[in-house]
Amino acid sequence: MKKTTLLILFATFIFGCSKDRFNNDNPYLPNYNFSIDLNTNLPTYASLKFTGNAVKAYPSGPSRGIIVFNTGSGFNAFDGACPNQDLTSCSTLNISGSNANCSCGSENYNLFTGQSSGQSYDLKKYRVEVNGDVVRVFN
Predict the structure, then answer these.
(1) pTM of the model
(2) Which carries the bigger pLDDT value, residue 33 or residue 21?
(3) How far apart are CA 20 and CA 59, in angstroms?
(4) Contact predicate 62/33, CB 8 Å
(5) Which of 62, 53, 77, 66 is nearest to 127 (CA)?
(6) Mean pLDDT of 46-72
(7) Within 10 Å of residue 11's Cβ, how many Cβ atoms?
(8) In angstroms, rounded to a whole number, what is the distance separating the alpha carbons of residues 53 and 49?
(9) How far apart are CA 42 and CA 55, in angstroms?
(10) I need a labelling partner for 72 at 20 to 30 A (CA). Which of 11, 29, 53, 129 fits?
């Protein structure tokens, strides 16, 4: 093989294998570009310092706000809209302990995993970074 062919194959292998394969596509929920910082020293987000607590943040976006949940080993962040139906006035998720419930139907999603049994789509997950007391959620 020629050196250029080997170089192209090597580059494809290196750059094509990303550990950050993040796919949160859902046909019911649009993709928004955003980044928000939640300071857990503020009273609104202070409950996030404790395992098993969730808060609803950023109600004006993405679809129906963001649910941020402390798993004990990190944080999960999900879109606040029901992932298995079109956006309507009742497609907002409500937090109930370590679950999120769709107000339109009987769907119940686990905030540790984002999953619900028997549903086509899991909760739409967003990226999370933690820097001290600040939890950054972004897409």
Answers:
(1) 0.82
(2) 33
(3) 27
(4) no
(5) 77
(6) 91
(7) 10
(8) 8
(9) 12
(10) 29
